[in-house]
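FW: tagging you since you asked about this chain on Friday. Here's the raw sequence from the shared folder, copied in full. Didn't touch anything.
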Amino acid sequence: MSKKKTGSSGIVYSTDPDFRMEDNAPVEETLPAKQQRLRVRLDTRQRAGKAVTLVGGFAGKKEDLEGLGKKLKTHCGTGGSVKDGEIIVQGDQRDRITQWLLNNGYSSTKRI
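HL: got it, structure written out here
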């Protein structure tokens, strides 16, 4: 038997007569670039002393955040990832990321 069961929500039985299983989570809309309030900061905590640039404060869909992360990593020519609602770019790339964001319509970037 397969260990991965698709379509299983974990609810076996409910005694609530008004219980309904709804998968209609509200879809979060991505704000336009002018309305985004992004923060760009340098972080070295728990990374063996290696610096990474974090971009946080993005309001929108996870797919759009991942797309922005890919564009920033490509522009800087480095690796990184998107975790916990933040874009992580390897190295101290604060100047390059801030400049790219300003050139692409993100008007209110705050560099920390």
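FW: The longest helix spans residues 62-76.
HL: agreed, and The chain has two helices and five strands.
FW: great, closing this out.
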